[in-house]
Amino acid sequence: MPAIVAFLSQKGGVGKSTLSRSLAVVGMDVGLRVMLADLDPQQRTLLRWANARTQYGVEPAVDVMAFDHPDDALTSGPEADLLVLDLPGQLNDSFAGVAANAQLVVQPTSPSIDDLHPGVLVFQALRRVHIPRERLAFALCRVLGDKEAEATRNYLQEQGYTVLRNALHERAAYREALNLGRALSETRQATLNASAREMMLDLLERALTAPAANPTVKKQPERRSRRKA
User: Fold this and answer.
1) I want to staple 25 with a disulfide (CB 3.0 to 4.6 A). Which of 65, 101, 150, 183 is the partner?
2) CATH of the domain at 126
């Protein structure tokens, strides 16, 4: 069974798809077999990105599959070492089931209180359904400076939550890379690549060394809906 990392939030635009893509690429860089699951039928951001990656000839190719139901994604990719789930930006009943099956649940957040407050509430809700605190982590994104990143990290740690190493600053080069089918670790600037890679390696280490989750989802082939990029 693969290690499972789920990116979720009750808000869109916080960085779930951005980090999902980057984790998949860094995972492949270190020799893992990775499946990237696009679970947002309204957006299909990952599929569009994978198509751009093919269009611009970026290597390695990333295995991206589209699913309409989280249960189907959780039962996919048995040959993969790492299954990366990119969930829609909304809070729904599937969150708890996904979290229960994941080695690590990651919420990207900016330093804005409009992102931080709902993010803490989501993790509090998962704790109430017995998701272990050590399987929950925040990722700092779209920060404008080191002081802002440090203050945000301190705030989240005071709430009792893990914050992934490093923080991703707001940079045009990151957006340009994504538009060209690249990950955050594949920009034209080595320092930006190193920053993103450090966060992804921290995430990978936590996910791959975490105790196995207790799967709660059975395979349901009649519901399967999957499309490959």
Assistant:
1) 183
2) 3.40.50.300
